């Protein structure tokens, strides 16, 4: 086999590899003419390769794309990077466009026979997902605004009227039945307020946590415990570890777990916050009756509750906050250190800090 035949065989092999790619590949010569495109590039453009090769690259793009590409090449030349990236609308031969991401590099080979090469990826599906996520977040913001304003306002009016009614009844000879009705109204108002707060939290805690700080879990657990009506319940902190977290969201997560333990295990429940041995994570456990194995996935569903007073959003908020941090949450048996059989929520994938 001659050197020329070996070289041609090598070139055919490389072309076969490039033609098997799902991304478009191109090469441009120093005069700005198309020196090579793979099959995917021709397919995206809507013409055959012979029509493209030898033509000016700027004959196939919009003025806006040409300007973007020029700026990207200038930026690459001024930086120390080897590869540039630019997003633009790819123009087909029929005049249609769709979003793409192009990665390109300046090259020099065989006496500068090439100027640059690049790979182009259709990002239509990615952009559609991003657009859908943006619309979802806009709807969540709108929902949070409605909950915050349109629901809170009438609730505030109702609570104010109830206060006036209670003042009028304070010195009156009120039938027991009427007192019971007033108490039920007050309880309903409180339940509505808790439900509104939970709905707002759900709407606002689904985003990925971008800014974190070093948080002492034990100290934060004690702060969260003071924020909850704990009655005769007790808290034991069995860790001095610190983690990277959003302090406010982690505090809300702990508060919800404490309320859940008291609501389901009783006002004298013993709660433990500790570190998972041999794993990067922490747990919140109690000595209550626990959660049956066949219900442990369902407890995180919105609206799921086994009590008449529960909103069904508390543990869903816990899961959303964990997801926002990139943590996994799992429900197991209770405080293993004391051989209790209650519920135990384990959080793994937690980034730790030096104490």
UniProtKB/TrEMBL annotation:
SUPFAM superfamilies: ATPase domain of HSP90 chaperone/DNA topoisomerase II/histidine kinase, Homodimeric domain of signal transducing histidine kinase, PYP-like sensor domain (PAS domain)
Family annotation (InterPro entries): HATPase_C_sf (IPR036890), HATPase_dom (IPR003594), His_kinase_dom (IPR005467), HisK_dim/P_dom (IPR003661), HisK_dim/P_sf (IPR036097), PAS (IPR000014), PAS-assoc_C (IPR000700), PAS-like_dom_sf (IPR035965)
Domain Histidine kinase, residue spans: 146-348
EC numbers for this chain: 2.7.13.3
Membrane spanning stretches: none
UniProt GO MF annotations: phosphorelay sensor kinase activity
Reactions it catalyzes: ATP + protein L-histidine = ADP + protein N-phospho-L-histidine
Chain ranges of the PAS domain: 10-80
Gene3D superfamilies the UniProt entry points to: 1.10.287.130, Histidine kinase-like ATPase, C-terminal domain, PAS domain
Keywords assigned by UniProt, alphabetized: Kinase, Phosphoprotein, Transferase, Two-component regulatory system
Domain PAC residues, every copy: 84-135
NCBIfam families: sensory_box
Protein name: histidine kinase
């Amino acid at each position: 086999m001659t050197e020329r035949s070996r070289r041609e065989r090598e070139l055919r092999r490389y072309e076969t590899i490039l033609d098997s790619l799902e991304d478009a590949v191109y090469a441009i010569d120093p005069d700005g003419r198309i020196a090579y495109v793979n099959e995917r590039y021709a397919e995206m453009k809507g013409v055959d390769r012979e029509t493209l090769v030898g033509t000016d690259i700027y004959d196939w793009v919009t003025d806006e794309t040409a300007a973007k590409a020029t700026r990207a090449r200038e930026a690459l030349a001024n930086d120390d990077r080897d590869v540039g990236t630019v997003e633009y609308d790819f123009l087909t031969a029929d005049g249609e466009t769709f979003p793409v991401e192009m990665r390109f590099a300046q090259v020099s080979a065989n006496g500068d026979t090439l100027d640059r090469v690049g790979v182009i990826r259709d990002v239509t599906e990615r952009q559609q997902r991003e657009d859908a996520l943006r619309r979802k977040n806009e709807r969540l913001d709108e929902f949070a605004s409605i909950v915050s304003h349109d629901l809170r306002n009438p609730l505030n009016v109702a609570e104010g009227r109830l206060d006036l009614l209670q003042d009028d009844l304070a010195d009156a000879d009120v039938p027991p039945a009427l007192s019971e009705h007033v108490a039920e109204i007050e309880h309903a108002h409180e339940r509505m307020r808790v439900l509104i707060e939970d709905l707002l939290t759900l709407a606002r805690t689904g985003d990925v946590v971008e800014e974190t700080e070093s948080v002492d879990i034990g100290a934060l657990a004690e702060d969260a415990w003071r924020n909850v009506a704990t009655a005769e319940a007790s808290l034991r902190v069995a860790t001095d570890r610190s983690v990277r977290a959003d302090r406010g969201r982690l505090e809300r997560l702990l508060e919800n777990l404490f309320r859940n333990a008291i609501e389901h295990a009783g006002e004298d429940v013993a709660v433990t916050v500790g570190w998972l041995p041999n794993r990067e994570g922490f747990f919140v456990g109690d000595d209550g009756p626990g959660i049956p194995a066949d219900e442990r996935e369902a407890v995180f569903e919105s609206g799921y509750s086994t009590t008449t007073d529960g909103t069904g959003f508390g543990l869903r908020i816990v899961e959303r906050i964990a997801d926002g941090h990139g943590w996994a949450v799992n429900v197991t048996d209770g405080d293993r250190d004391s051989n209790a059989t209650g519920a135990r929520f384990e959080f793994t994938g937690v980034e730790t800090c030096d104490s």
